[in-house]
Write a structure and sequence with these properties.
The chain is an alpha/beta fold. The chain is built from 7 helices and 7 strands, in the order βαβαβαβαβαβααβ. The chain has one domain (about 10-235): Rossmann fold, CATH 3.40.50.720. The structure holds nicotinamide-adenine-dinucleotide (NAD).
Length: about 240
Protein backbone atom coordinates (compact mmCIF):
# COMPACT_ATOMS: atom_id res chain seq x y z
CA UNK A 1 0.00 0.00 0.00
CA UNK A 2 1.31 3.46 -0.91
CA UNK A 3 1.95 6.21 1.60
CA UNK A 4 -0.91 8.23 0.07
CA UNK A 5 -3.34 5.44 -0.67
CA UNK A 6 -6.86 6.83 -1.11
CA UNK A 7 -5.74 10.44 -0.62
CA UNK A 8 -6.71 13.35 -2.88
CA UNK A 9 -4.01 15.92 -3.56
CA UNK A 10 -4.28 19.34 -5.22
CA UNK A 11 -0.97 20.49 -6.71
CA UNK A 12 -0.58 24.04 -8.00
CA UNK A 13 2.09 24.57 -10.62
CA UNK A 14 1.40 20.90 -11.32
CA UNK A 15 2.18 21.04 -15.04
CA UNK A 16 5.92 21.54 -14.70
CA UNK A 17 9.08 21.14 -12.64
CA UNK A 18 8.71 20.44 -8.92
CA UNK A 19 4.90 20.26 -9.08
CA UNK A 20 4.90 17.69 -11.90
CA UNK A 21 7.58 15.52 -10.26
CA UNK A 22 5.57 15.59 -7.04
CA UNK A 23 2.38 14.62 -8.88
CA UNK A 24 4.20 11.60 -10.35
CA UNK A 25 5.48 10.49 -6.95
CA UNK A 26 2.09 11.07 -5.29
CA UNK A 27 0.42 8.91 -7.96
CA UNK A 28 2.99 6.15 -7.37
CA UNK A 29 2.08 6.35 -3.68
CA UNK A 30 -1.62 5.86 -4.42
CA UNK A 31 -3.00 9.43 -4.53
CA UNK A 32 -5.51 10.94 -6.90
CA UNK A 33 -4.06 14.21 -8.16
CA UNK A 34 -5.50 17.51 -9.33
CA UNK A 35 -3.00 19.44 -11.41
CA UNK A 36 -3.57 23.18 -11.34
CA UNK A 37 -1.67 25.43 -13.72
CA UNK A 38 -1.92 28.43 -16.03
CA UNK A 39 -0.23 26.42 -18.77
CA UNK A 40 -3.11 24.51 -20.33
CA UNK A 41 -1.12 22.75 -23.05
CA UNK A 42 1.46 21.30 -20.66
CA UNK A 43 -1.14 20.55 -18.01
CA UNK A 44 -3.47 18.66 -20.36
CA UNK A 45 -0.59 16.66 -21.83
CA UNK A 46 0.59 15.71 -18.34
CA UNK A 47 -2.93 14.73 -17.29
CA UNK A 48 -3.12 12.44 -20.34
CA UNK A 49 0.32 10.97 -19.54
CA UNK A 50 -0.71 10.13 -15.98
CA UNK A 51 -4.07 8.70 -17.06
CA UNK A 52 -2.30 6.49 -19.60
CA UNK A 53 -0.52 4.96 -16.59
CA UNK A 54 -3.94 4.29 -14.98
CA UNK A 55 -3.60 7.15 -12.53
CA UNK A 56 -6.59 9.21 -11.44
CA UNK A 57 -5.61 12.70 -12.53
CA UNK A 58 -7.47 15.88 -13.39
CA UNK A 59 -6.01 19.05 -14.93
CA UNK A 60 -7.63 22.38 -14.06
CA UNK A 61 -6.55 25.60 -15.71
CA UNK A 62 -6.56 28.31 -13.06
CA UNK A 63 -4.66 31.41 -12.02
CA UNK A 64 -3.84 31.25 -8.31
CA UNK A 65 -4.01 35.05 -8.05
CA UNK A 66 -7.70 35.15 -9.01
CA UNK A 67 -9.90 34.49 -5.98
CA UNK A 68 -12.86 33.05 -7.91
CA UNK A 69 -10.59 30.73 -9.90
CA UNK A 70 -8.97 29.45 -6.69
CA UNK A 71 -12.41 28.80 -5.18
CA UNK A 72 -13.36 26.93 -8.35
CA UNK A 73 -10.30 24.63 -8.03
CA UNK A 74 -11.67 23.34 -4.73
CA UNK A 75 -15.24 23.03 -6.01
CA UNK A 76 -14.10 21.05 -9.06
CA UNK A 77 -11.86 18.82 -6.94
CA UNK A 78 -14.73 18.00 -4.60
CA UNK A 79 -17.03 17.34 -7.58
CA UNK A 80 -14.45 14.98 -9.13
CA UNK A 81 -13.01 13.20 -6.11
CA UNK A 82 -15.28 14.03 -3.14
CA UNK A 83 -12.60 15.27 -0.72
CA UNK A 84 -9.26 17.06 -0.34
CA UNK A 85 -6.52 15.65 1.90
CA UNK A 86 -3.36 17.33 0.63
CA UNK A 87 -2.61 20.68 -0.97
CA UNK A 88 0.83 21.29 -2.46
CA UNK A 89 0.75 25.08 -2.77
CA UNK A 90 3.62 25.37 -5.18
CA UNK A 91 2.96 27.57 -8.24
CA UNK A 92 5.38 30.46 -8.46
CA UNK A 93 7.37 32.76 -10.69
CA UNK A 94 10.74 34.41 -10.39
CA UNK A 95 13.18 36.46 -12.37
CA UNK A 96 16.27 38.49 -11.68
CA UNK A 97 16.05 42.29 -11.92
CA UNK A 98 18.32 44.77 -10.11
CA UNK A 99 16.17 46.65 -7.59
CA UNK A 100 17.01 50.06 -9.04
CA UNK A 101 15.48 48.82 -12.32
CA UNK A 102 12.57 46.95 -10.72
CA UNK A 103 9.24 48.51 -11.69
CA UNK A 104 6.48 48.64 -9.11
CA UNK A 105 4.41 46.59 -11.57
CA UNK A 106 6.99 43.76 -11.61
CA UNK A 107 7.27 43.89 -7.80
CA UNK A 108 3.45 43.66 -7.48
CA UNK A 109 3.21 40.85 -10.00
CA UNK A 110 5.87 38.76 -8.26
CA UNK A 111 4.45 39.28 -4.79
CA UNK A 112 0.96 38.69 -6.17
CA UNK A 113 1.80 35.20 -7.46
CA UNK A 114 4.43 34.14 -4.90
CA UNK A 115 2.69 35.37 -1.74
CA UNK A 116 -0.91 36.49 -2.38
CA UNK A 117 -1.56 33.39 -4.52
CA UNK A 118 -0.15 31.13 -1.81
CA UNK A 119 -2.48 32.80 0.72
CA UNK A 120 -5.55 32.40 -1.52
CA UNK A 121 -4.88 28.68 -2.10
CA UNK A 122 -4.05 28.04 1.57
CA UNK A 123 -7.18 29.83 2.77
CA UNK A 124 -9.44 27.81 0.49
CA UNK A 125 -7.65 24.61 1.48
CA UNK A 126 -8.17 25.41 5.17
CA UNK A 127 -11.86 26.21 4.60
CA UNK A 128 -12.38 22.78 3.04
CA UNK A 129 -10.18 20.92 5.54
CA UNK A 130 -12.12 22.46 8.44
CA UNK A 131 -15.27 20.88 7.00
CA UNK A 132 -13.65 17.44 6.89
CA UNK A 133 -11.21 15.85 9.30
CA UNK A 134 -8.20 18.02 8.45
CA UNK A 135 -5.32 17.62 6.04
CA UNK A 136 -1.78 18.58 5.13
CA UNK A 137 -0.70 21.73 3.31
CA UNK A 138 2.82 22.14 1.93
CA UNK A 139 3.79 25.60 0.67
CA UNK A 140 6.75 26.04 -1.65
CA UNK A 141 8.98 28.82 -0.36
CA UNK A 142 12.68 28.91 -1.30
CA UNK A 143 16.07 28.97 0.39
CA UNK A 144 15.72 32.67 -0.54
CA UNK A 145 13.03 32.86 2.10
CA UNK A 146 15.83 32.35 4.63
CA UNK A 147 18.69 34.33 3.07
CA UNK A 148 18.96 37.28 0.72
CA UNK A 149 20.50 37.54 -2.73
CA UNK A 150 21.10 40.43 -5.14
CA UNK A 151 18.54 41.06 -7.89
CA UNK A 152 15.58 39.18 -6.43
CA UNK A 153 14.11 41.58 -3.88
CA UNK A 154 10.45 40.92 -4.69
CA UNK A 155 10.87 37.14 -4.96
CA UNK A 156 12.90 36.92 -1.76
CA UNK A 157 10.46 39.12 0.16
CA UNK A 158 7.55 36.99 -1.01
CA UNK A 159 9.30 33.71 -0.14
CA UNK A 160 10.25 35.01 3.32
CA UNK A 161 6.56 35.83 3.66
CA UNK A 162 5.63 32.26 2.74
CA UNK A 163 7.82 30.89 5.56
CA UNK A 164 6.11 33.04 8.18
CA UNK A 165 2.67 32.53 6.66
CA UNK A 166 3.35 28.82 7.09
CA UNK A 167 4.21 29.21 10.78
CA UNK A 168 1.18 31.42 11.40
CA UNK A 169 -1.32 29.11 9.69
CA UNK A 170 0.20 26.08 11.42
CA UNK A 171 -0.34 27.64 14.85
CA UNK A 172 -3.82 28.85 14.00
CA UNK A 173 -5.05 25.39 12.95
CA UNK A 174 -2.81 23.09 15.02
CA UNK A 175 -5.76 21.77 17.03
CA UNK A 176 -7.87 21.18 13.92
CA UNK A 177 -5.68 18.43 12.45
CA UNK A 178 -4.49 20.74 9.68
CA UNK A 179 -0.71 20.65 9.34
CA UNK A 180 1.07 23.39 7.38
CA UNK A 181 4.73 23.12 6.38
CA UNK A 182 7.02 24.53 3.71
CA UNK A 183 9.58 23.32 1.25
CA UNK A 184 12.60 25.59 0.78
CA UNK A 185 14.40 24.41 -2.36
CA UNK A 186 17.87 25.46 -3.42
CA UNK A 187 18.72 25.75 -7.11
CA UNK A 188 16.68 23.05 -8.83
CA UNK A 189 16.89 21.98 -12.45
CA UNK A 190 13.46 23.06 -13.73
CA UNK A 191 12.25 25.41 -16.49
CA UNK A 192 12.18 28.35 -14.01
CA UNK A 193 16.01 28.46 -14.18
CA UNK A 194 17.34 29.86 -17.46
CA UNK A 195 19.61 27.38 -19.29
CA UNK A 196 22.48 29.90 -19.37
CA UNK A 197 22.46 30.26 -15.54
CA UNK A 198 22.58 26.57 -14.66
CA UNK A 199 26.36 26.13 -14.62
CA UNK A 200 26.93 29.17 -12.41
CA UNK A 201 24.16 28.23 -9.98
CA UNK A 202 25.56 24.70 -9.69
CA UNK A 203 28.97 26.14 -8.87
CA UNK A 204 27.45 28.30 -6.09
CA UNK A 205 25.99 25.17 -4.48
CA UNK A 206 28.25 23.32 -1.98
CA UNK A 207 27.33 19.98 -3.58
CA UNK A 208 28.39 21.50 -6.96
CA UNK A 209 25.23 20.52 -8.81
CA UNK A 210 21.61 21.56 -9.19
CA UNK A 211 18.97 19.62 -7.30
CA UNK A 212 16.38 17.63 -9.20
CA UNK A 213 12.62 18.03 -9.10
CA UNK A 214 12.41 14.39 -7.95
CA UNK A 215 14.57 15.20 -4.92
CA UNK A 216 12.09 17.96 -4.02
CA UNK A 217 9.15 15.59 -4.52
CA UNK A 218 10.52 13.17 -1.92
CA UNK A 219 10.70 15.94 0.69
CA UNK A 220 7.17 17.06 -0.20
CA UNK A 221 5.92 13.47 0.13
CA UNK A 222 7.35 13.33 3.65
CA UNK A 223 5.54 16.53 4.68
CA UNK A 224 2.30 15.62 2.91
CA UNK A 225 2.08 12.11 4.35
CA UNK A 226 1.57 10.74 7.84
CA UNK A 227 5.33 10.11 8.04
CA UNK A 228 5.52 13.70 9.33
CA UNK A 229 2.43 13.50 11.56
CA UNK A 230 4.02 15.55 14.41
CA UNK A 231 5.54 18.20 12.09
CA UNK A 232 3.77 21.52 11.59
CA UNK A 233 4.85 25.13 11.08
CA UNK A 234 8.22 24.01 9.87
CA UNK A 235 10.32 23.83 6.74
CA UNK A 236 12.45 21.31 4.94
CA UNK A 237 15.32 23.19 3.32
CA UNK A 238 16.66 21.01 0.52
CA UNK A 239 19.43 23.02 -1.06
CA UNK A 240 22.63 20.99 -1.49
CA UNK A 241 24.13 22.82 1.49
CA UNK A 242 23.60 26.42 0.26
CA UNK A 243 22.15 27.87 3.46
CA UNK A 244 24.66 26.01 5.64
CA UNK A 245 27.32 28.44 4.41
N1 LIG B 1 13.65 25.70 -9.50
C1 LIG B 1 14.24 26.35 -8.50
O1 LIG B 1 15.45 26.55 -8.50
C2 LIG B 1 13.41 26.82 -7.33
C3 LIG B 1 14.10 27.24 -6.17
C4 LIG B 1 13.37 27.67 -5.08
C5 LIG B 1 12.00 27.71 -5.14
N2 LIG B 1 11.36 27.32 -6.29
C6 LIG B 1 9.90 27.41 -6.29
O2 LIG B 1 9.36 26.17 -6.68
C7 LIG B 1 8.04 26.39 -7.21
C8 LIG B 1 7.88 25.58 -8.48
O3 LIG B 1 8.80 26.09 -9.44
P1 LIG B 1 9.55 25.16 -10.51
O4 LIG B 1 10.99 25.30 -10.26
O5 LIG B 1 8.92 23.84 -10.58
O6 LIG B 1 9.25 26.04 -11.83
P2 LIG B 1 8.32 25.77 -13.12
O7 LIG B 1 8.36 27.05 -13.86
O8 LIG B 1 8.76 24.52 -13.79
O9 LIG B 1 6.87 25.52 -12.51
C9 LIG B 1 6.05 26.56 -12.02
C10 LIG B 1 4.65 26.35 -12.57
O10 LIG B 1 3.78 27.32 -11.95
C11 LIG B 1 2.87 27.75 -12.93
N3 LIG B 1 2.33 29.07 -12.55
C12 LIG B 1 3.00 30.25 -12.51
N4 LIG B 1 2.17 31.24 -12.14
C13 LIG B 1 0.95 30.68 -11.95
C14 LIG B 1 -0.31 31.20 -11.56
N5 LIG B 1 -0.49 32.50 -11.34
N6 LIG B 1 -1.36 30.34 -11.45
C15 LIG B 1 -1.20 29.01 -11.71
N7 LIG B 1 -0.02 28.47 -12.08
C16 LIG B 1 1.04 29.30 -12.21
C17 LIG B 1 3.67 27.81 -14.21
O11 LIG B 1 2.83 27.79 -15.36
C18 LIG B 1 4.55 26.58 -14.09
O12 LIG B 1 3.96 25.45 -14.72
C19 LIG B 1 7.91 27.90 -7.38
O13 LIG B 1 7.14 28.41 -6.30
C20 LIG B 1 9.34 28.39 -7.30
O14 LIG B 1 9.45 29.71 -6.83
C21 LIG B 1 12.02 26.88 -7.38
Amino acid sequence: MGKLSGKVAVITGGASGIGAATAKLFVQEGAKVVLVDLNEEKGKAFEDELKAQNAEALFLKANITVEAEVQNIFKETLDAFGKIDIVFNNAGIGRVTPTDELSYEEWRNTVNVDLDGVFLVAREAIREMLKSDGGSIVNTASMYGWVGSPGSAAYNAAKGGVLNLTRSLALEYATKNIRVNSLAPGFIDTPIIPEESKKELASLTPMQRLGTAEEMARAVLFMASDDSSFMTGNTLTVDGGYTAQ
